[in-house]
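Researcher: Here's the sequence for the chain we discussed earlier.
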Amino acid sequence: MSAAAVTLRTANQKGIKLAVDGDKLTYEAPAGALTSDLRAALIDNKPVIIAALTADLSVEELQAEAGPDWSWLQRHVQALKAFADCVRISRMRQRGEVPAHYTATTNCRGCGPVPIFPGAAQVVDLCPWCWNRATGLPVPKR
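Model: Thanks. This is the structure I predict for it:
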């Protein structure tokens, strides 16, 4: 288990509620729960914890998705946050859920009219939902 995962588990076990506010990690803790060692671990693992909390994924899920790139990603905060967001959006699409930023519509030659991010072409040969269609997963319609 990674240091970030251990830190999150420890904070949870002590009743510490962590939240993300932009690039800041905030907390609510019972009296005496946030020891100096735990505070140091939260600071040391802040980028990974923020990415996991923002994407609503566990550290283990992020690490598994990253594969051999995990050690590099942990050291690059912006890349880690972008990666976590991509994993979150990909999982939403696999469930047939439309990400909030998919506010436009395109006409995919394979899927028909589907939600898409703004700025996409009006007609496309392939769309983000084509994988769902090909594998029998849900494809939302517009």
